[in-house]
Every structure is written in C-alpha cells, then in structure tokens.
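Meet my pick.
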Amino acid sequence: MERTLEQIYGEDGKYRKRYEHLFARFQEEWKGDMAEFFSAPGRTEIIGNHTDHNGGKVIASSIDMDTICAAYPNGSDRVNIISEGYEEVVMVDLFPKEKGEIKDPDINPTKALLQGLFEGIRNLGYQVSGFDAYISTDVIRAAGVSSSASLEMLLCAVVNFFFNKNAMSCLDYAKAGQYAENHYWNKASGLMDQLACAVGGPVLFDFSKDAVYEKLDFSLDDMGYDLIIVNTGKGHADLSKEYSEIPSEMGAVAERLGVKQLSEVSFTKLLDHMQNVITNLHNDRAILRALHFYEENRRVEEVAQAIRNKEEEKLLALMQESGSSSWKWLQNCYVAEKNTGSESFYPAWKEQKIPLVLALTEIFIRQTGRGCCRVHGGGFAGVIQAVIPKEQTPKYMEFIESVVDKDRIYKMRLRKDGAVRVLLKRQ
C-alpha cells in the first residue's frame, strides 16, 4: 500500500522534516542518493486480552506512533541497518551458516529477530535480497505498543516493495514476524501484534479462522475521549515464564476437553464438564483463565456491535469489564511468585504497580463519572490503558503523576494506516 504524508499523518510540514532528516542520514551513512520511504505503526489493544493464542477474538488498532525508514537495495545477500540513536550497525546475512537465536549471548537480539524475519519470509515462498536502511522510531519501548512488531512490519513492507512486487499480504507479514519471535526470540507470541501493525486502523480479528479480520469505523477522538498509555514503571527482567504459562494453561483446559485450543470447543461444554476438569487438572488458575477466554470473546463481539451501533457508553463499559476480568480471572496484573533471581529474594508479589495505578485511575474515573481503564498488552508488569474524557485529560495526567513519572505517560491517537510505502511529493 502507498500513502502520502497527508493521508497518513493529516499534515505535511512537520512530518516532511522528519523524513527529510531520515533521507539526509541515509545519504550520510550509506552514500546513496536514491531511497524509498516506509512507515509502520505501533499498536494498542482495545479489547481481547490474551485470547489470540487460543484462536480467540481481538479488537486492536494501529496508533500514531510509528517506525520509519529510508531504504534501497544494495545488490548483496546482506541487510545493513542503522537505527537512529544506536551506534552499532546491524548486519544480517540472509544465508547464515548458523541460526542466531537470542539465547546465544553473543548474538545481538535485534540481529537474531531480523534473521528470523527474513527466514520466515523465505519460508512463505517470497524473495529477500540485500538492502541498506536507516531507521527512526517514536514507538515507545516496554510500553505494550509493540515496538518490535512495528519494526518487523516495516521491514516486511520494504521487502515486499523491492523484491516481491507487492505480492505479500498483511497476513504474510504477520506470519513472518510471528515466526521470528517464536523461533529466534523464544517468545510464544500469536499474530495479533503483527497484524494490528500491518493492517492499520481499528480492526476486529478472529484467530480461529486463520486470522480473518474486519476493519471498524471507530475513533475515540470523535467520541470526545483521549487514549492514555501509562507505563507504571520498571517491571521484572524476565517475564517469559509468566507469558508462556497463559497459553499453556488455557491449552491444558482445552486438552481436557479433547481439543488443542479453547476456540475449538464451546463454553457450554466446559461448564458441563467443569467438575471433571477441576478434578483432573488440579489447576484452578488455568480454569479461571479459560473462563476469561470465553467471556472475553463475548465482550469482543459485543464491543464490535457497539461500535457499529455507535453505543459509546456500552463500549466503554465492556472495556472496563475486560480490565476487571484480566485482573481477577486472567491474573496478569502482577507476578505472584517469589523472584528468586534477585540477590535479596525480593517477593515479586510486593510489586503491584499495575493494580496500584489501575486502582487510582478507577478512583479518578468514578469521581468524574466517565471513562474506563484496563491492563494493556501482556501484563504482569508495566502498562495500563486509560480512556479519559478530553476535558479531564490534563487533570488525570497531573493526578497520576503523583505515582508515575510524567515522561511515562503518553497520550496517543488511533491511526488508520498500517505498514505502508510513503510517497513524498517533490517541493
């Protein structure tokens, strides 16, 4: 897909300077006078927390933070990338002798991810050749807005344009990104992050049907609300175990019901066989997480219908209900186990920044009477999402600054476009 600056950002001047700076840096670093430009956004999850990996439903949207690049083929079998703010040049051999898994301490994690991405693209039957790129991003890291997926989808757009005549679909992009994270980052991710960044705009996803999706006509701005992402502070160093336990526990319940994923069996069947599952599984948390899965799917469908019917109050109420379910049933708002990796054996459950900021936000919303809040993304540490009336946003941000540094509070907007080639009009 090709879009102009005005189509993507709503204006030209401010963003043209950003791309002109990008091209100047590309020329300086790679000594080339020709380049094409690309953009891929970050993403936010509207509703559908931890359902995609069991074939569930999600509503997510791209946001107005993006990763951009200037790139051009170099005629080799190597991809060379410089990211603004980082001195190291990431050089990725497209046909390496060894797999660069992130578990290898000598492998740059970005290099490992990109090696996996390009391998994933080739596995899907597409071509990848060498190119040089200079990249800049304003997608905040460690804030649940998928900075890694934004990078992956950006480079898929580059490869698609230069080497595949735009034959790759958004689903192809997402599958390549998922392959990289599953096999090179050892992260049990689904397709939601990548697809939301690739497709763009508010989108309803159904992952029970090979990621069928429908774009939705939805704008918080038009409703008179701001979307606020609050990074509640530094989380635990390694949450891979906590993240992986959610799909594995949901899968364990599904297995007791004779299937691989919860989407393959009805909610009624789980309720009918509840006592048998309880007796044989010996894991009440897994059952609670399965209950969250089914109820969250229901909420996603109801939110989609509320969007179509312009039922704004119902939409916000369902988003709040989703947040409560993540907190109580899914249980991904803090780490419950002892942090044995710490020298002081600091009990992990004492650090509950997400519940604390959610509690304070709920108090603020109750006092003002409008809005909602929920855990954002993977959870366990880090980020919440708040939807606040525009006239109350300054007060909320001032209020929450009492416990969170102001540079960790971000106001953002939903974006209509996903991963695109950017057309710059000559001046």
Summary: DSSP finds 14 helices and 14 strands in the chain. The mean pLDDT is 90.
